[in-house]
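User: For documentation purposes, I need each entry recorded in a consistent format: the amino acid sequence on its own, followed directly by the corresponding structure tokens. There are two entries in this batch. Please keep commentary to a minimum and don't merge the entries.

Assistant: Recorded as requested. Entry 1:
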Amino acid sequence: MESTRLLARAGYWLAAIFFLFPIANWMMSVWPLHLGQAQWRFGAIGGFTNAALTPLLGLFLALSVTLLANHPRVRRVLGWLCVLLALLGLLMLLSFALDYVQTRAMADIRLRQAIDLASGVALVKQVGIIVALVLMSMAGIRRSRGSGKSGRSSENIVLIPVSNTSPE
């Protein structure tokens, strides 16, 4: 039991590092904010899309730790955080699409094909991130089968399969 608790602490710390540091690095790269400029928003959201995969892994790790350590309250909080982030991601997706149209119209004609390709990749990533956040929110918010009022699961989590038969 003690080793599970220590492993959970380490997992939460790693999850926080995976989540917070890439976002902080991205914030430093887009500071100062120029929210009124379509080109700045286009570049900032595109840059965030590239940086968002590591924080997404951090959230996934944290949710996995909640299952391993049987922390249903933390799991639900992370589930709702994923809902909020999915909604924010949807707003960013819409803003990025609108800013793409404006930025493309202002771009040199020789750069438009590169802008189209990079924007297409960023949009696919954004949709993938939103889908992952929705799935993680569902996993975080739903009660596990067999859970009582406390939300504690009676499911056993097996990380490494163990055979009961001895080798012959």
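Entry 2:
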Amino acid sequence: MFPRIPKITQALMIANVVVFLLQQVLGDEALASMMLWPLGPNGLDLFSAGYEFKPWQLLTYGFMHGSFPHLAFNMLALYMFGAPLEYTWGDRRFLAYFLVCIVGAGLLQLVVGWWAVSQGGQPYPTVGASGGGPHALACAALDPQHVAAVVTLAGVAPFADEPWWFDGMASPGALESARDGGREGRRVYGETAEFDESSFVDTDWQALAEEWSPLGADAGRASAEATANGSVPWGEIDDDVAFTRDWGFDLAQVECPVLVMQGSRDRVIPRAHGEAIFPQLVGGEFWLRPRDGHVAVLRGLGVALDWVLEASSR
């Protein structure tokens, strides 16, 4: 039998669970102003974009969680350590201690971020390939102070439920099942789906046999681990579902320079995706590599990083 949970500890646990449920129902986009963001160009403007610092975030961020295990382990720690402290100190002193720890940690995060930039910690570039492209763009859109430039290689375009978005894909079934059936539909599809080798062109296979062979080995190992003992690869599934939903930001929010690099022969994320991303950017460049497929385009990473150095110094 667990001992009775004291009232403040119990109330904090309930509040954390309620906020987590709201995250699942409303989505993180609706609760973005509750997360802890760095101080933006608008200062303490309470009516600025949700992705900038607001004073109340020093408290509310402490009730936000990224996943169920994150919530579960935090609540276990709150029960194991919070309840004894509340019994020892009393409810008022324990609540004050809890709030001071939350606010203090938030302030420390803000100060460390400010200090790093002020002492020469320069904004950094983000690079994303394939499904990582949207993530790299999201960093620039939602944290513009810290992202100097973006490179996407064979990146996915914002979803459009139109034929062009799927045209040219050798195997669009995974994304179509995610669009039509969400997580469960994509899970069911994955139970029988097999990799279509025609997704990669000759230059892709060549790259995987040569300088990008570690990438192929890592991908194979990750897939084996994700599906071991009948496990479901939820990370891959969630990515596909996210690609076929609204991203939660507009490409026009990306103010830094962006290089969109795409292979003309890509049969996983066809060139139309790069051609769709580029016009929506404030400051973008589009480089098309005529011989490359989905993997071979990574051979352009070196010149892309040279471009980052040049773009960051403008």
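Summary note for entry 2:
The chain has a mean pLDDT of 89.
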